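User: I'm putting together a small comparison set for a docking exercise, and I want a reference complex before I start. The sequence is below, and the ligand is zinc ion. Could you produce the 3D structure with the ligand included, as structure tokens?
Assistant: Of course. I'll restate your input first, then give the structure tokens for the complex.
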Amino acid sequence: MDRYNPSKIEAKWKKKWLSAKIYEPDFLAPLEVSPDVTSGLPLRKCSGLLTGGAVKKPFYNLMMFPYPSAEGLHIGGVRTFTGVDIYGRFKRMQGYDVFEPIGLDGFGIHSENYALKIGKHPAKLATVTEKNFYRQLSEIGNGFAWQERLETYDPDYYKWTQWIFIQLFKHGLAYRKKAAVNWCPSCKTVLADEQVIAGKCERCSTTVEKRELEQWFFKITDYAERMLKNIEKIDWDAKVKIAQKNWIGKSEGAEIDFEIRAGAKPNFVLLHGYKGSPTGVFLPWLKRELESRGYRVSVPQLPNTENPTVLEQVAYVLKNIPFNESTVLLGHSLGAPVAIKVVEGLSKPIRKLVLAAGFVTPKFKDKSRPFEYTFDWKFDFEKVKRNVREVVLLRAQNDSAVAAERVEEVHKKLGGTIVDFVAQADHVTGEKEPEVLRRTLDALTVFTTRPDTLFGATYMVLGPEHPLIKNFQFSIFNFQEVEAYVKSAKAKSDEERIAEGKEKTGVELKGIKAINPATKEEIPIFVADYVLGHVGTGAIMAVPAHDQRDFDFAKKFKLPIKIVICPHWPEKTCPLLDTAYTGEGHLVDSGAFDGTPSKEARKKISDFVRGVWKIQYRLRDWLISRQRYWGPPIPMIFCESCNWQPVPEGDLPVKLPFVKNFRPTGSGKSPLASVKSFYETKCPKCGKRARRETDVSDTFLDSAWYFLRYPSVDEKKHSWNPATTKKWLPVNMYIGGLEHSVLHLLYSRFITMALHDFGYLSFEEPFTTFIGHGLITKDGAKMSKSKGNVVNPDEYIRAYGADAMRMYLAFLAPLTEGGDFRDSGIKGITRFLERVWKFASEIKFEKIKGRGASDSEIEKAVNEAVKKVTKDTERLQYNTSISALMVLINIFEEKKERVTLRQFKIFLKLLAPFAPFMAEELWQRRAASYQLPVISYRSIHCEPWPKYDEAILKESSFDLIIQVNGKVRGKISLPIGATEVEAREAALKIPSVNQFVSGEPKRVIFVPNKLINFVV
Ligand SMILES: [Zn+2]
Ligand SMILES: [Zn+2]
């Protein structure tokens, strides 16, 4: 036989497989199975013989598609793709109809950054990289369904990406919001939270900044709970499950208010509105609440409330109510302008002014009121500002009289904080209005998952961003020191601030104290950078005995550490702590709650201090806009009269125009914003002039649904064919990188779930099984261009062939683990393949043929190999599968004279997923010379996977059944693998047999390890 020449045989079979379409499932074929009458084989497209065959067992075998940005395919990618393919081939031989598609994730920042780097237009670059990538992918020997390939930048594809955006918009899951968002100064675009890894841009590793911008968001938070629940149901890599759980970050706990005391005790003055009185609306309740905390409260009856005039009411208050620097003045409705006038008339500043549903312009949403004319609507706002330390504007979202703009107006004149909330009744008229109480008092709200530890809260910490610091600037003695600290903290990244084990820093806010609502004791307040202003309420109650960071902080600042959870109950010998005790136990030193189990105490203590029980998620909405060029334009139109309107679905796709200067501008606008012919359009609703959205969508939207399109790439009218989708999805096996745990894998789940809810999909979860692959190094070091140790797959395929390359990558380690690429290793695999080739060339099966079964040792070894390869391949432990093949070829070589063709064919089948080209070549040669008449081509990759016999593995002998003319005449024990000659000899020694066999039998039928039948 000829020499092993991989390039020759690989080229040959690549071509043959393509023309015979052995990897193309028939998407339109019915699901039922009916055996082919002529061949007796099940109808399977894979056979390459049968057309229009039924799909027996669909198996969607998917790998994460690559983004074609660098010079070519990375060796790590090749390992994953061939690793996925080994599994696919294995499943195909097990009788599944395997669909293994490939495509390119070519839209997006990564490809665009590469285009910028080499100074080429991304559209032109795409045509080059596409060709190169597909060439490389075709050479690795994968059983790709090439007809179903797709590219995300193809308008036929992104038409549907835009369609998905519109569906989300129509269902209220796409919305615009102004927010402080992550901005990558290098990529010059915003990024989603998931795309900021340790404070750096996921694509380019630049430190990310915050920018205040209005952007499109997807409401992924609506799905937080369901995504969390479904995690239990999906067969996914445990690491991904944990990462997603942590990212979604559900926490249950209580919002608890801590009162703030600044110097002297505050006193309160509450002013009612038009036609009001001290016994109206929430005033009696609020008075009681404040008095129960030990404060003096005045609620005057304002004169002439049916027909009020300003002079009269303001004069009355100024004359009858004492004010001092600790006064908090609340005005509700018309009481608000009265309160402002009162402050204007004071000679000394007061502590705080709170306006609930207040206004300074007499314009209402519902109807006009007489006081609009009798009241004095001129104010000296400058004087008011000088006479009050802090202004709080409470704006109810459910107010039918006072519009939101009215509050804006007050805010423009007086500054302060606008608090948006939903009131208990229209126009803030509930009997109880907790938000009013909360804002009238100086309450500091914290969220805690451990309200059971409240009695142990010995100090509080505000994040440097907390507004309270500024509001209290006149009460804080050391405000300059505090300000300097805040400034330095804000210059640090979040990661630096919360890094574990970092030396804690902070400054006490001297002059103000918080009241622990459980113990009623005054506790100090600090500002410290380990609390982030934008997380939760931006403040925490510190329980140093039961939280490690609080413990470290308390140690440094010598603050009291009070144990309130004891693990030794009922013994009260709580440990002396050298670290925080964060576990469960029973409450101690907690008043009436002593002895309560900590879990049980959570809700009880929250109720005791009138906390609000809450479920919170860490997950934020998915920021989808990108101020870039290379992506699908967001299919929305802005009209001055009709607001945002989706592009009519019939007008899709909104094609990305060719823009020569595609460089990101950094101005917060996409380069498309300078293309008039693109953005000028008509409103789809009213037909007036309107403007297109010029941002493009996040590339992770492109990849969040590509698996839905693969089986339906030819579908023109729909995003996917419903029948095909039902048959082939969800994906059975998905393999890819763990770095996408909370990016692609989370987004895909969200998009699938939403599309399921809109009625477009019958399933909620896109991938039944997900497995993360390991990463490979070169000679022990991480591959990088700067180190010059990047492995170019092309070179290795040229030198050793794709079979050797695949097999070597599979041999490195289980696919789920990392491995180290060494040139010496690939040479070892090549030697193995050459041995297989040599064995196949030299062995003469004709000699053995007549002798039937070979010896028992070979038979046992073959069965052992089948068992091991089957089990290990199923678990993606390809390395040990390959070892088993190596063991088997050793035995074959040792006992060359006794190996049968049947045994060698089993070996080839086991080899087929790993070295598909060589297995096919040797299979076809053997088939041609010894077995079938060559009427048609049937690939080894469509042959059934071999089975093993557990009995042979266990035993060394078997009972041979002896028949004469089909009738059982005896039984005899023989060693496993006994040959026909041995069996015959032994059988004919038995009298019950030989009495029926005289002379040479006409024919002998021998079934190895089972029976012998003499036909006489
Ligand atoms: Zn970047
Ligand atoms: Zn319009």
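The mean pLDDT is 89. The pocket of zinc ion (ligand 1) is lined by residues 184, 186-187, 201, 203-204, 206 (CB under 6 Å).
User: Thanks, that's exactly what I needed.
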